[in-house]
Design goal:
Length: 362
């Protein structure tokens, strides 16, 4: 066996550290290995080890893992020791936590320095640039449509995913405006697991929306969180379920913290820079999260400003240019063949090991 390799962690979420320290005698197992990330199943929780360029997450520690893929395998045992975490791979790897900075992922409500109306105007300003950079993956076309505002959509301009999601997101916003918990649950179930990847587009959108509502201290954040927690965990991937659970406790990634804080400061250049950087996260996670964040903030601003929507008009932006039997065709397409399979792909691969959800809200 090769000698032990020591990798120093630079930071760790307070949530991840609490999970690791809650029962030192517990053992974990490597759940999946990627080029820049490693996921460890620790009892019913998922602890991630991510490379610095991915940023910090509420369930993660940050350390260089980009050169460890050949040493670690799914199923390798993981142990908690005084120095950190040891993974018993082809060569034992110690993730040293002794010098790691501990940070809190809890997003605390903030008051804008220049009033809520200014937040609405900044939404409109920053979405123009971010929407222009959004790609064709995930909900990128919907973010672009929202940035354009009054430009109507056509069914032909959207992928089957976006055509389906457009109606579900609109229904979600209507249920949120009415604080209708039952309708919210139905809308949330339609979005969780919708899309491809480790964190599907629907999940990323809900995380962003929770961040927007929580940052504005909007009580509907709790209603939305409860609707998410009422959804069975096996509808999406284990990583997406973990991040959704943290979001329901108002715990978010450091990168999302940065974007949210910029919306509340009178510095449009910093906001634009962070929003444009957000669009580049992953294949579509950045655009999907930013869309959710914008919708959540806009809903909160509208209520704060007593019904005056200063950012953009969601209904107008997502309204189709013309209606025809194409709408029926879309529904048929989504419930048959390959298109429906795209949406069910993550649910089929979902890991049902995560069964515990948080039931307390800060």
């Amino acid at each position: 066996m090769l000698g032990q390799l020591i990798v120093e962690a630079t930071s760790i979420s307070a949530c991840a550290l609490k999970s690791l320290n809650s029962n030192p005698g517990r053992r974990g197992v490597v759940h999946d290995v990627h080029r820049r990330a490693l996921n460890i199943l620790w009892d019913s929780e998922l602890i991630s080890v991510v490379s610095p360029e991915l940023g910090s997450f509420p369930n993660a520690l940050v350390a260089r893992v980009d050169r460890l893929a050949e040493l670690l395998r799914v199923g390798d045992k993981v142990f908690r020791v005084s120095e950190g975490l040891i993974v018993q791979g082809a060569a034992p790897v110690l993730f040293d936590l002794r010098q790691a900075a501990c940070w809190s992922p809890i997003l605390k409500p903030a008051a804008p320095a220049d009033g809520w109306g200014a937040v609405g105007m900044r939404l409109k300003f920053v979405l123009r640039g971010a929407g222009a950079r959004a790609g064709a993956e995930g909900f990128g076309p919907l973010l672009a449509a929202l940035a354009l505002g009054s430009a109507p959509l056509t069914p032909e301009s959207l992928s089957p995913l976006c055509r389906y999601a457009r109606g579900k997101i609109t229904a979600l916003l209507r249920a949120l405006a009415a604080s209708d918990a039952r309708r919210l649950i139905r809308c949330v179930r339609a979005l969780i697991g919708l899309g491809a990847g480790l964190t599907p587009s629907g999940d990323d959108l809900l995380v962003g929306m929770l961040a927007g509502l929580a940052a504005a201290a909007d009580a509907r954040a709790v209603i939305l969180a409860r609707a998410i927690l009422a959804t069975p965990p096996n509808r999406t991937t284990i990583l997406a379920q973990t991040l959704l659970r943290h979001a329901c406790e108002f715990e978010f990634s450091a990168r999302l913290h940065d974007v949210v804080s910029a919306f509340f400061a009178p510095d449009p250049y910093t906001l634009e820079r962070r929003a444009l950087a957000a669009v580049a996260w992953g294949e579509s996670s950045g655009a999907d999260s930013l869309l959710g964040l914008a919708l959540g903030l806009d809903a909160a601003v509208e209520r704060r400003c007593q019904g005056t929507r200063l950012g953009f008009d969601m209904e107008q932006a997502f309204h189709f240019k013309r209606r025809s039997r194409r709408s029926k065709d879309d529904r048929e397409e989504l419930t048959s063949g390959n298109a429906r399979a795209v949406f069910d792909e993550n649910a089929k691969r979902a890991d049902s090991n995560v069964t515990r959800a948080a039931h307390s809200f800060r």
